[in-house]
Amino acid sequence: MTALPVSEPFSAGVFLTYRCSGECSHCMYACSPTWRGDWISKDDLLEVLTQLSAKINKRYPPGFKKIGINHGLHLTGGEPFLNFELLLEATQIAARFRIPATFVETNCFWCSSDDDTKDRLLQLREAGLDGILVSVNPFILEYVPFERTEKAVRISKEVFGENVLVYQEFFYHQFKRLNIRSTLPFEDYLRMAGLQSLRYVELIPMGRAPYKLGNLYRRYPAKRFFDESCLEELTRDWHVHVDSYCNYMVGYCGGISLGDARNLESICEKGVDLNDHVIIRSLVSDMKGLYDLAVREFNYKELSEGYMSKCHLCVDVRRHLVQETARFKELQPREFYQQLL
What we know:
Blueprint: E1 3-4, E2 12-15, H1 42-56, E3 73-76, H2 84-96, E4 102-106, H3 114-127, E5 131-135, H4 146-160, E6 164-167, H5 169-177, H6 186-193, H7 209-212, H8 231-235, E7 240-242, E8 248-250, H9 264-270, E9 272-273, H10 278-283, H11 287-298, H12 310-324, H13 334-338
Parallel strand pairs: 2-3, 2-7, 3-4, 4-5, 5-6
Antiparallel strand pairs: 1-9, 7-8
């Protein structure tokens, strides 16, 4: 294989920023309040949505508005409500291009009053937003008072009707049963709900999770993952992300750019030149190639405590490479790797 094929996306998420009001332990994209001001520019936003609309729109019937986790377009981050004016403009652009099932994803930190919450949601609906996804889990609960989440769900249903996703419903109802009102440290949550509740967390072992939550999982030596590859993850077409730097990222693989999303037509037509993207070439072959490269050329040391998954091994090797060299252009954005710990 000399080029990695890239399918046209069926659905996409656009990061308005990596900056967030919290620093969740499970975050796949290492978002936090300490990210520098990296909001996507209005010109880039226009170009990215132009490119995405040309691909996504033809995958849905005209007028399709039913939102879903992997349907249409979601505006995300980071926390998009940290810059409401930009979120409003992104919504207007998406509506102008008739992108189906456009919704926003939020942790609800901003829902301090009923009036302000409803006003903002009505403005977004008027601008063309189809719905909202409210994120609910024990990690967000450390930063966002649960009464704000409840407020967001209640008022969102008034504004958007059935086009409200509570992700994840299990935790929303569990927090209500536990009568949680404010924020709650993760350790206190585990004491109240028990470790078994984590079975319901869709905890993908990449990004920040291996570093902050790895103690909850069994670890293995690097060689256990040597015969695994990331070909399936890097070639899937059912959901992609474009970040605020216009990096085109397949699936949930934060810190790996397949190219500039402003040139999406070229990416989908030509694929990714594997001779020019050494890290991606290694990942679509087997994990051992990536590991050997890092050990041989950049003095990578295997973690003595081991790894919880192939994704943990992958991100730790990549983090080391970014610290040692600027040679690998697909390892973007570089600040992602600085925000992991």
